[in-house]
TrEMBL record:
It comes from Psilopogon haemacephalus. Residues 18-112, 125-196 form the Ig-like domain. Pfam families: Ig_3, V-set. PANTHER family: V-SET AND IMMUNOGLOBULIN DOMAIN CONTAINING 4, V-SET AND IMMUNOGLOBULIN DOMAIN-CONTAINING PROTEIN 4. This is VSIG4 protein.
Length: 196
């Protein structure tokens, strides 16, 4: 059981992140790696996307240009690293290695890994409700903090409702600080949280 390629049957990647498709073997004395080919079958195209032989490395499918790498100085590690995963990258990827034995015979092995690409769902901000009603002595200092969870980045705005029903923008920070409060500062304050 020597010169076997090892790798997972399936990996899940995240859209716009990078992913590694593991493909490894234990180098054996008297067997020299001749060629490495990574091929793909998916909606867009199918065929060899990467090839390494004695003359160098070649990226053969244009949609992978500048987006794939295979380790160079790690004997036995021929894993494919894909940068900035696209939804169209989902498909079946086959790693094939050919070795030459000391008697000049060739041995070839291959494994296939299925790749899924997930789009991480964006979530709307959810504001943690504060306590309704806050009594503060005149002349004191207080602050109101807006806490929200959801997909970053989140921006915040604090408003005060006017008697005419209008909104007065007070702050573009998560925290609204009020110094030296007067009775005229009484009223209804509210926070808005926004993301993409």
């Amino acid at each position: 059981a020597f010169l076997d390629l090892v790798g997972p049957s399936e990996i899940k990647g995240v859209w716009r992140a990078s992913a590694t498709l593991p493909c490894t073997y234990v180098p054996v004395k008297d067997f020299v790696q001749q060629t490495l080919t990574w091929a793909v079958v998916h909606d867009q195209s199918s065929g060899a996307l990467f090839r390494r032989d004695s003359s160098g490395d070649y990226i053969l499918l244009s949609e992978y240009r500048n987006r794939v790498q295979v380790p160079k100085d790690a004997p036995g590690n021929v894993s494919l690293h894909i940068l900035k995963l696209e939804m169209s990258d989902r498909g079946s990827y086959t790693c094939q290695v050919t070795w030459r034995a000391s008697n000049n015979s060739l041995i070839a092995k291959e494994i296939t890994t299925k790749v899924e690409v997930d789009k991480v769902a964006a979530t709307k901000p959810i504001i943690r409700a504060g306590e309704m009603g806050l009594r503060v002595p005149a002349g004191a200092r207080t602050s109101l903090t807006c806490e929200a969870s959801g997909s970053p980045p989140i921006s915040y705005r604090w408003f005060r409702s006017t008697p005419e029903g209008k909104a007065l923008l007070l702050s573009s920070q998560a925290e609204l600080v009020m110094d030296n409060l007067h009775p005229s500062d009484s009223g209804t304050y509210y926070c808005e949280a926004e993301n993409r």
